DNA sequence: TTCCGACAGTGGGGTCGCAAT
DNA sequence: ATTGCGACCCCACTATCGGAA
């Protein structure tokens, strides 16, 4: 199959707003792709590369050759070239990589170049990713989408699942099994504004678990000496977390798949800032030395397999029993089962006081299902707010093209002026975007690089955020975590905005 | 007919590893 | 030694579609 066939379908999907229409276009193509190219087609049309990452980003794509006039590139040829690019990126010079990227793009028409550029950026923007592709695979193969979804949970990679479905239908999908050592797609959580709302969603009684601000881990043990650890995106981090490996090897069962969180704790048991945990987990060199300074702890909250028995389809309450039987009590995430709102709220207050992020409220009945945020797990975190001043704004992309979107936020400096604390684009409705674009252009003043519009600091905006973290980037040495707009405060003057001193006091 | 669950899009701060400067 | 890039940790929120109620 030619790349241009895939590109044309992608363009049709982009033009179609109805989801069923998108699914129709995708399924039509899946119906005519050969078995040897099915994985590539599914991968491209769900916005990812079979190679996952190839070491090519926006900078590398700034300078690419003139396009060809005739579309002759096959999927197989393009895929093969991308694999070579990845191989060179793994161990080789920039020049060699650049030459291969040039070779790839020189073989494409301008239409194909545009598609490949977006695909490499990870910004296909056709309104269809895994969720829509699952339905398309179901439609093209005749298998129920629940079977596609189920196989994806177990296999963790949709192109392989899709290719199997196209070749062998529902029987092939049901052949997928949990395999120790191969990552399972993790179950994700939705969110609720408070404990009472979360309980209502989950149904009572529900389990409340401490939400630790660390890194999600899936630990697989097969046999007496083999442990593999995966992240949420299914990357293998076994070598970076020896403490976890040792903890799992010390367990009596040698056939396990566990879900949990690693976190760096201080000697007094309170958590380090997230940055410390993230640094430890992503450091590959000097791990033995680092673990002495900053040891990692692990807390498990789910079991997908214990002693060779798959547990994914069991209700959460039964998986908990299996977990408690397999894992030492000290490695279990603190939890409370209750239907009482007051008791739940006290538990929430306790966990926040202990320095942790909040709670995850879980339905006792829900099976382990990948993706599907909000199905059975709901997170609750406390929310801070500040009144800050808009210092500048940046033009948006995609559906925000032509709108001033991303705000630069500043706190008032009592000495005079403002200190920037970060940016946000979250929480804005279309109406607010339109309003602020107009208003900002009135306030525009001073230098602009064509991208960022500097404003007279006159507008106060109420910002919600999760916490203040140390920042190597911003002048005050601090930045807001997960900042989002709640509302503008036309009733407040700039002199009423919060000061850097207030923000600094929140960092402790 | 209205409601609501699921999805995609739009970007945020921080850190590491690696190659080039 | 420093800088820039790519990848990946953590992530919140709104608009939209289409099935459920």
TrEMBL record:
Please name the catalytic residues of this protein: 211
Q: Which residues form a coiled coil?
A: none
Q: Which residues form the ATP-dependent DNA ligase family profile domain?
A: 289-413
- Keyword check for Transport, yes or no: no
Q: Which GO terms describe its molecular function?
A: ATP binding; DNA binding; DNA ligase (ATP) activity; metal ion binding
Cofactors that this protein relies on: Mg(2+)
Note the PANTHER family from the entry. DNA LIGASE 1/3 FAMILY MEMBER, DNA LIGASE-RELATED
Residues that coordinate or bind ATP? 209, 216, 232, 261, 301, 373, 379
Which keywords, in A-to-Z order, does the entry hold? ATP-binding, Cell cycle, Cell division, DNA damage, DNA recombination, DNA repair, DNA replication, Ligase, Magnesium, Metal-binding, Nucleotide-binding
Instruction: From the Swiss-Prot or TrEMBL record, give the protein name.
Output: Probable DNA ligase
The entry's family comment says: Belongs to the ATP-dependent DNA ligase family.
Q: Could you state one GO biological process linked to this protein? A: DNA recombination
Q: Which PROSITE patterns match?
A: DNA_LIGASE_A1, DNA_LIGASE_A3
> What does this gene product do?
DNA ligase that seals nicks in double-stranded DNA during DNA replication, DNA recombination and DNA repair.
Give the encoding gene's name: lig
Instruction: Give the E.C. number(s).
Output: 6.5.1.1
Task: Report which reactions are catalysed by this protein.
Answer: ATP + (deoxyribonucleotide)n-3'-hydroxyl + 5'-phospho-(deoxyribonucleotide)m = (deoxyribonucleotide)n+m + AMP + diphosphate
InterPro entries per UniProt: ATP-dep_DNA_ligase, DNA_ligae_ATP-dep_bac/arc, DNA_ligase_ATP-dep, DNA_ligase_ATP-dep_C, DNA_ligase_ATP-dep_cent, DNA_ligase_ATP-dep_CS, DNA_ligase_ATP-dep_N, DNA_ligase_N_sf
């Amino acid at each position: 199959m030619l790349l241009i066939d895939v590109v044309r379908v992608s363009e049709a999907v982009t033009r179609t707003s109805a989801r069923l229409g998108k699914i129709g276009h995708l399924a039509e193509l899946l119906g005519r792709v050969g078995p040897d190219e099915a994985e590539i087609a599914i991968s491209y049309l769900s916005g990812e590369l079979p190679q996952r990452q190839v070491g090519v980003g926006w900078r590398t794509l700034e300078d690419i050759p003139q396009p060809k006039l005739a579309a002759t590139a096959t999927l197989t040829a393009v895929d093969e070239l991308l694999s070579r690019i990845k191989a060179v990126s793994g161990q080789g010079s920039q020049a060699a990589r650049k030459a291969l990227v040039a070779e790839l793009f020189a073989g494409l028409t301008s239409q194909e170049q545009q598609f490949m550029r977006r695909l490499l950026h990870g910004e296909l923007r056709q309104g269809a990713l895994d969720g829509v592709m699952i339905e398309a695979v179901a439609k093209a193969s005749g298998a129920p989408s629940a079977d596609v979804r189920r196989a994806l949970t177990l296999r963790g990679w949709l192109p392989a699942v899709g290719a199997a479905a196209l070749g062998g239908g529902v029987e092939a999908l049901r052949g997928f099994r949990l395999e120790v050592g191969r990552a399972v797609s993790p179950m994700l959580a939705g969110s609720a504004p408070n404990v009472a709302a979360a309980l209502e969603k989950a149904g009572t009684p529900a389990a409340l678990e401490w939400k630790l601000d660390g890194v999600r881990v899936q630990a697989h043990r097969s046999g007496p000496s083999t442990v593999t650890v995966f992240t949420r995106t299914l990357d293998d981090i076994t070598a970076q977390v020896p403490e976890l490996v040792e903890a799992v090897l010390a367990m009596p069962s040698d056939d396990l798949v566990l879900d949990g969180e690693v976190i760096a704790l201080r000697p007094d048991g309170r958590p380090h800032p997230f940055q410390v945990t993230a640094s430890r987990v992503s450091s590959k060199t000097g791990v033995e030395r680092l673990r002495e300074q900053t040891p990692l702890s692990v807390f498990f909250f789910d079991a997908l397999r214990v002693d060779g028995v798959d547990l994914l389809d069991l209700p959460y309450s039964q998986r908990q029993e299996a977990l408690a039987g397999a894992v030492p009590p000290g490695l279990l995430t603190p939890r409370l089962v209750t239907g009482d709102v007051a008791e739940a709220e006290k538990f929430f207050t306790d966990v926040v006081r202990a320095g942790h992020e909040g709670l995850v409220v879980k339905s006792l009945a829900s099976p382990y299902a990948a993706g599907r945020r909000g199905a059975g797990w709901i997170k609750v975190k406390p929310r801070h707010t500040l009144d800050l001043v808009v210092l500048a704004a940046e033009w948006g992309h995609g559906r925000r093209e032509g709108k001033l979107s991303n705000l630069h936020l500043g706190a008032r400096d009592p000495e005079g002026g403002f200190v920037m604390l970060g940016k946000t684009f979250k929480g804005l409705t279309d109406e607010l975007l339109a309003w602020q674009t107009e208003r900002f252009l009135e306030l525009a003043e001073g230098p602009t690089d064509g991208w960022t519009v500097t404003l007279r600091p006159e507008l106060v905006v109420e910002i919600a955020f999760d916490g203040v973290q140390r920042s190597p980037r911003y002048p005050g040495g601090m930045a807001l975590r997960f900042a989002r707009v709640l509302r503008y405060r036309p009733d407040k003057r700039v002199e009423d905005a919060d000061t850097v001193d207030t923000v600094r006091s929140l960092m402790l």
